[in-house]
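Duplicate of #3305? Posting structure anyway:
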């Protein structure tokens, strides 16, 4: 577990939001993949262009896959800039999912071509950043730039899991995207875990030890 000094979670979440916003570019930030049993957690940061409006932006969870793909292309085309950051399965296991998510968010913000004067983050936690930031609960449905970030993060991660499916088709990653569906849990029972599974998530951890206490090997391809 990282020390407080190196923790990617900022104490700025305790600050009260300002009654005014600084003039300049604002970036929206959101993540995808905190809950799954496999694959990285992915975050995106987006600075929209007010002169090039994008219709239909919404929380990625309420959109169809087809709508997300269409909006993904429009955001990439019309936004002033956007960037993606991720934290690997190894980092998730080492840091825990909260700190790994904050790390992915920080990487996304630091990857922006333009530096914003303020960052708006979906949720109630903030990554450690060198710029003013604000956490907004339900921000993916309230703030257009966060909605855009949620779409970029979701589509990016879904495409990653589709590629993992090509490596390990027995788990069905292309369908459930790593979430703990009945089909995924059954595949874990039959095949054990692979290198893309998060070892310390309980359904995965259970596959590493049998009732007799012997270790189950991890599938590598």
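Output from current build:
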């Amino acid at each position: 577990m990282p020390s407080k000094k190196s923790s990617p979670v900022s104490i700025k979440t305790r600050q009260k939001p300002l009654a005014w916003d600084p003039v300049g570019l604002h970036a929206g930030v959101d993540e995808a993949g905190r809950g799954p049993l496999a694959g990285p957690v992915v975050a995106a940061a987006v600075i929209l262009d007010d002169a090039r409006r994008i219709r239909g932006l919404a929380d990625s969870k309420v959109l169809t896959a087809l709508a997300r793909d269409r909006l993904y292309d429009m955001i990439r085309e019309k936004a002033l800039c956007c960037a993606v950051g991720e934290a690997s399965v190894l980092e998730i296991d080492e840091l825990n999912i909260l700190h790994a998510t904050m790390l992915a968010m920080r990487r996304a913000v630091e990857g922006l071509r333009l530096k914003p004067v303020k960052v708006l983050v979906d949720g109630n936690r903030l990554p450690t950043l060198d710029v003013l930031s604000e956490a907004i609960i339900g921000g993916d449905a309230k703030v257009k730039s966060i909605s855009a970030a949620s779409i970029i993060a979701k589509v990016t991660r879904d495409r990653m899991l589709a590629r993992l499916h090509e490596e390990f088709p027995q788990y069905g990653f292309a369908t459930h995207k790593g979430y703990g569906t009945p089909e995924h849990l059954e595949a874990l029972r039959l095949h054990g875990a692979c290198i893309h599974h998060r070892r310390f998530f309980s359904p995965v951890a259970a596959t590493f030890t049998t009732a007799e206490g012997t270790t189950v090997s991890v599938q590598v391809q």
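Confirmed duplicate; merging threads. Residues 73 and 152 are 9 Å apart (CA to CA). The chain is about 35% helix and 15% strand.
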